[in-house]
C-alpha cells in the first residue's frame, strides 16, 4: 500500500490552503455579493464574520484534521470512537461534490473568456449580450467545463507534493502580484474614488438580516470551511507545524485578496458608469467593457482572466481532494483512478447547472435556476450547517487537553478559541441562519 503523503513545508501548506480559501470565493463571488448587498456594509460584516467566526472554525478544522491524520470520515471515527460524528465527513464529501459541480461551470466561463481574450475577440458593443450568448451555448459551455475539470483532475491525481503543492507554489504568488497590478490600474482611473467609497463607507440603511447570513455564508465559502476541505488539507500537515499561525495567515490572505478584488472591480465600475449590482456576471460583463476603454486594455484583460483561472483552479483542486481522499480512504494507491472517476462524475452532475442559463433556463427551483439552487444549498445552508457541526465537535467532543496540545498556543489564546468555538460561533450561526429563514418565510 502506498504511504500517506505530507506537505513538504509550512509555506506549501499555507499557499495550498490559502488557494483553496481564496479562489472564486474572493475574486468572483465576493465582488458581486458586495455589489448586490450594500457594498461596504456587506464588506464590514464579511470581515467581522471571517475573523470572529470563520477563523476559529478554520482552526477547528485544522485541529481535527491533523489529529486524525486521515480523510475526514476516518479522522472523525478515530477521534470519536463509537459515536456517529463520522457522518460529518460524508456531508463534507456531498457538499464538496455539489460545490465543484457548479464551480466548474464558472471555471468553464473563465476559459471561454480567456480564449476570446487571447484571440482579441472580446471587443464587442454589448458584453451582457456576449455573456448571455456564451452561457446559453450548450456546446461551448460544456466543452469549457469539461476542459476545466480535466485540468483539475490532472493536478489532483498527481498527489499532494507533485500535484497540489507544486501548483499552489507558483499560482498563488502570481495571483497576488497580478491583483496588485490590476488594483493600481483601476485606482488610477478618473472617478475611481466613488468605487472606493462604495467599498469602505457604510450605508447602514442597507443592513438587513439577509445581509448578515450572506456575509456569513461568504466568510465560510471564501475560507472553504464547513465542507471538511481544510480538515483534509491539515491531515497532511506534520505534527511540528504550528496551527494557529497557519490559520491566521490563511485568513489574512483571504481578506486581503477579497479587498484587492473589490479595489480592482468597484473603482473601475464607478469610473466608467456601470452598475455594481450585475450579479454573478459582474466580472464577465462589466470588466471586459472596462478593459476595452483603457490603454492596453486587452493586455490587462488577458492577465485578469489568467489570474481568474489560477484562482479557480486552486479552489477546485481542494474540492476534488475532499472527494478523492474520502472516497479512497486509506487506499492511497487508488488516488489516480479515484480522481478521474470522481472528476468525471462531478462533471456529469454539473451539466444541469451549466445548462441552467440556456436550454434549462426555464427550470425554476425556489425562485432561481439550477445553478442558483446548487449555490443556495451549499453556501447558504450546507457550509453554515457543516461549520456549526465542526465547531460543536471541536468544542465539546475533543477535550481541552487534546486541543491545547494540538494548538500549542498561549493558554489565554487557547481559552479564547475554545469559548468562540463552543459558544460564540454556534450561537452566531444559529441566530443569523434563523433570521434569514424567518425573512424567507415572511
UniProtKB/TrEMBL annotation:
Asked if the keyword GTP-binding belongs to this entry, the reply reads: no
Please give the coiled-coil regions recorded for this protein. Answer: none
Q: What is its main location?
A: membrane
| Pfam families given in the database record | SNF
Extract the InterPro entries matched here. Na/ntran_symport (IPR000175), SNS_sf (IPR037272), YocR/YhdH-like (IPR047218)
Keywords annotated in UniProt: Membrane, Transmembrane, Transmembrane helix, Transport
| Topology relative to the membrane | Multi-pass membrane protein
Where does this protein reside within or beyond the cell? Membrane
- Record-annotated membrane-spanning stretches: 12-30, 42-64, 85-111, 141-160, 172-192, 212-236, 248-270, 282-310, 338-361, 381-398, 419-438
Q: Which CDD domains match?
A: SLC6sbd_Tyt1-Like (cd10336)
Protein name per the record: Sodium-dependent transporter
What species does this protein belong to? Answer: Sporosarcina siberiensis
Amino acid at each position: 500500500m502506498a504511504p500517506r503523503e505530507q506537505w513538504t513545508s509550512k509555506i506549501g501548506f499555507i499557499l495550498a490552503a490559502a488557494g483553496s480559501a481564496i479562489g472564486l470565493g474572493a475574486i468572483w463571488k465576493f465582488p458581486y455579493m458586495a455589489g448586490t448587498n450594500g457594498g461596504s456594509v456587506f464588506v464590514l460584516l464579511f470581515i467581522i464574520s471571517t475573523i470572529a467566526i470563520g477563523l476559529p472554525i478554520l482552526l477547528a478544522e485544522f485541529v481535527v484534521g491533523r489529529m486524525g491524520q486521515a480523510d475526514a470520515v476516518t479522522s472523525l471515527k478515530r477521534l470519536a470512537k463509537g459515536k456517529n460524528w463520522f457522518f460529518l465527513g460524508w456531508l463534507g464529501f456531498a457538499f464538496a461534490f455539489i460545490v465543484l459541480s457548479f464551480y466548474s461551470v464558472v471555471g468553464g466561463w473563465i476559459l471561454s473568456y480567456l480564449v476570446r481574450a487571447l484571440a482579441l475577440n472580446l471587443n464587442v458593443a454589448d458584453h451582457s449580450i456576449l455573456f448571455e450568448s456564451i452561457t446559453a451555448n450548450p456546446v461551448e459551455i460544456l466543452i469549457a467545463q469539461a476542459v476545466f475539470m480535466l485540468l483539475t483532475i490532472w493536478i489532483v491525481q498527481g498527489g499532494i507534493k507533485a500535484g497540489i503543492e507544486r501548483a499552489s507554489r507558483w499560482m498563488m504568488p502570481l495571483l497576488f502580484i497580478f491583483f496588485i497590478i490590476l488594483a493600481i490600474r483601476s485606482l488610477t482611473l478618473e472617478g475611481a474614488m466613488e468605487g472606493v467609497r462604495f467599498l469602505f463607507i457604510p450605508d447602514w440603511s442597507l443592513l438587513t438580516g439577509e445581509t448578515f447570513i450572506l456575509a456569513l455564508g461568504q466568510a465560510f465559502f471564501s475560507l472553504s470551511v464547513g465542507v471538511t476541505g481544510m480538515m483534509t488539507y491539515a491531515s497532511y500537515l506534520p505534527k511540528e507545524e504550528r496551527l494557529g499561525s497557519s490559520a491566521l495567515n490563511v485568513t489574512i490572505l483571504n481578506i486581503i485578496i477579497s479587498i484587492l478584488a473589490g479595489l480592482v472591480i468597484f473603482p473601475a465600475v464607478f469610473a466608467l458608469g456601470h452598475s455594481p449590482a450585475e450579479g454573478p456576471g459582474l466580472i464577465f460583463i462589466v470588466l471586459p467593457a472596462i478593459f476595452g476603454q483603457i490603454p492596453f486594455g486587452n493586455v490587462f484583460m488577458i492577465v485578469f482572466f489568467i489570474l481568474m483561472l489560477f484562482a479557480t483552479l486552486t479552489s477546485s483542486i481542494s474540492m476534488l481532494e475532499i472527494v478523492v481522499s474520502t472516497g479512497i480512504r486509506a487506499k492511497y494507491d487508488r488516488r489516480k483512478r479515484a480522481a478521474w472517476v470522481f472528476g468525471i462524475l462531478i462533471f456529469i452532475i454539473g451539466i444541469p447547472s451549466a445548462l441552467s442559463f440556456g436550454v434549462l433556463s426555464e427550470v425554476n427551483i425556489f425562485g432561481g435556476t439550477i445553478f442558483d439552487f446548487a449555490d443556495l444549498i451549499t453556501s447558504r445552508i450546507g457550509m453554515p450547517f457543516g461549520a456549526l457541526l465542526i465547531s460543536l465537535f471541536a468544542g465539546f467532543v475533543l477535550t481541552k487537553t487534546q486541543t491545547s496540545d494540538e494548538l500549542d498556543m498561549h493558554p489565554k489564546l487557547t481559552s479564547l478559541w475554545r469559548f468562540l468555538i463552543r459558544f460564540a460561533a454556534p450561537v452566531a450561526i444559529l441566530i443569523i441562519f434563523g433570521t434569514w429563514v424567518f425573512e424567507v418565510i415572511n
